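Summary for the steering committee. One of the milestones for this cycle was to obtain a three-dimensional model of the protein with flavin-adenine dinucleotide bound, which we needed before selecting residues for the alanine scan. The sequence and ligand used are listed below.
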Amino acid sequence: MSCAILWFRNDLRLGDHPALRAVLDRAPDQILFVYIWEPSEAAPWEPGAASRVWLHHSLLALSQSIEKKGGRLLLRRGPSLSTLRNLAQEHGASYVAWTRCYEPALVLRDTAIKASLESERLTVETFNGSLIAEPWEVKTTTGGPYQVYTPFSRAVFKLRERRDVLPEPRILPPAPREATSLQLEELKLLPRISWHREIEASWTPGEAGARRNLTEFVRNAVSDYEATRNFPALESGTSRLSPHLRFGEISPNMVRARVEEALREPNVGHSLGYEVFLKEIVWREFAYHLLFHFPQTTTKPLRPKFERFPWKDDPERLKLWQKGETGYPIVDAGMRQLWRTGWMHNRVRMIVASFLVKDLLVSWQDGARWFWDTLVDADLASNTLGWQWTAGCGADAAPYFRVFNPITQGEKFDPSGDYIRRWVPELSKLTSHVHHPWKSSVYTGGYPQQIVDHSEARDEALEAFARL
Ligand SMILES: Cc1cc2nc3c(=O)[nH]c(=O)nc-3n(C[C@H](O)[C@H](O)[C@H](O)COP(=O)(O)OP(=O)(O)OC[C@H]3O[C@@H](n4cnc5c(N)ncnc54)[C@H](O)[C@@H]3O)c2cc1C
């Protein structure tokens, strides 16, 4: 009887899963589906608190789907190599497969694990299940990595080879009866204090939730995406697929295929929405391309001269920003949406990030760390790109002299003030002054004073940047 191991990581789904297809081909009799929780103080970017909440529910959903089809998900805790090795020895597995990761520390770890297992006569195969184009698949004309988005996206769209979406298997082989698993609760992914209830109420982690989300977005909203995507008050202005993509509950290949399929349906006229949406998916690809080729960028600016930037060490202001108490309504609305739901709209991410690095002169690394802990979609590649882009120190970044004005950004992208009123209840009675409550005579329930004057802060930032 042949036995194989499928090691789940950031690919918590059964559909469009090349590594799953491979283990099914190799070992139709017995499969050890395993997820290994390997928390380590040494790993600088182990999942933050909000991501762990998501992971808990995503593992629950995956394990239920596997069980419905006849298999069993084994949960283990500890070093990945010894866990895989022991599993293989205990159950006589000779084949191991997994989906490739691209984060620098994981690339090193996985390369070592593969070599070690192979030296013990196991066959190991790894697959691309998380990207449309793996970081080495597209190259500039001189053979190097891209640092500018537009030519990168053109190269990705030109890629000839397209993988068909793999169907979800109807049945799965059982795990050996004696194979043991921890209970999900034993991984201790949920926080001890219950700050996460609203996160749980806001989302449906797991493959079914991801597919529903994609279907509804493509059916109802993608055609208007170009017009709606910058307005945070619109619930379905964007897809909200990011945490599902982050945990691999859906693949970008499925997203691309679903959008292209919709475009082929009768009565679907050409709309910029589809195109722009696919381009956003390619921003995620770009983020992975950069992270893979410039692994130092998780902590260091891509453009070295920015290493000398005189950031302020200002824990008090950083705290006010984290709590959404800066006195700038759109910034505070975003930071409170993040704390309560684990997610923030992209436009608002850019505004709050710009406010931290340019108005408060607090480093982008401090901002990235807070996002890492509080976002359910916290993703090392996209988070690093987003912060370096905003700070002006990354690839294809916003020029440093582009300082978002948090008041006019609010007026432009939340013109009715609905988004602000929703997340900042102190301002719920304001209408015309919702973007500048200090001008209003209506009681604003203790809403804080502005912690900096934007125009003075802007001048200070520009001077500091000019000195570079
Ligand atoms: C400072 C900052 C930090 C960010 N941190 C993260 C992060 O940790 N994880 C994360 O997934 N995204 C991050 N982003 C990118 C972006 O804000 C989110 O992907 C987006 O808001 C997710 O919402 P959505 O799924 O509704 O997006 P949609 O607008 O529906 O876009 C569809 C998908 O395209 C991808 N995408 C869209 N915009 C970007 C982008 N600018 N960069 C990379 N991928 C993109 C995402 O996978 C997204 O789910 C960050 C942006 C900024 C400015």
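Key point for the committee: Residues 3-129 form a domain with the Rossmann fold fold (CATH 3.40.50.620).
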